[in-house]
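Reopening this ticket.

The earlier resolution said the output was attached, but the attachment link was broken on my side. Pasting everything inline this time so it's all in one place.
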Amino acid sequence: MQPPNDDYARGNKTFRQTFKPLNIGRVMFFDENQKIYGLALESKVEKGNLRRLTELADSLGITIRFIQFSMEEAGKPTVNAVAFLDFSRAKATPEEALEILTNSYDFVKSAKIIKPQGKGVVFDDYFFPLVAAGERAVVFRKSVYEALFNGVKEKFGTAGEAMLYYQGFSVGTEISNQYLKIAKSNKIEDLVEVAKAINMTLGWGVVDYVSIDPEKGYAKLRIHRSFECEIGEGKGKPQSQFYRGAIAGIFASFFGKDVEVKEAKCIAIGDPYCEFEVKAR
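Inline output:
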């Protein structure tokens, strides 16, 4: 893979500004004057079902604020969905709408209203567990992983940083095997594309440049919006320990030998992205 050209460098600022956040849903905060309810739904997969659902909502004066579909495997005959519905100006109560839905539409296998759990908030407390890429997943919000990472560093100092690095290394070793399974290939180009996609999909960061020389045992990669370094902005030195360790674990597996990973650039010290250099020992 070739280094980025001048056009890329000139457009890099624009690239960084084009990130579009995705709300993964399952929770909605709203004005207490609104009447927001959740709907958990299991439906047959048939052409036109989504249109029929939206037409029903429209006829009842219900506004669909959010809807998310979930299918564990492509080709399954049913799909799960969670929606947040605004009944503020509806012509029916949630219970009446549910009765119409279940009695009038044979493609609906099951449906349940999710009531707000507090004033101005409703959580999806129906579907469990979360699954990502075929495995159970757990979501840590920023306030949680910030307390976790910074807490370890503040409590144990350099020993804590080393702990995070080696935890990351173990993770990197494991996920390198997962990349092979998902890519169903050992070609470097395929593995890079899988790694880039998973990092972005799971919210770790956006890998927009990777250069690897297997013969020399060298690699360089750039990551935008690293979740770990973002919580260390303004601390005056590169902050990646866990992520850097994960990179080391991946490339140690790939090169088949120990590696050294240096964070040459970091958003924590004002750089536009984090840049890592990997060298086999």
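Reporter confirms the inline version is readable. Residues 234 and 268 are 6 Å apart (CA to CA). The chain is about 40% helix and 25% strand.
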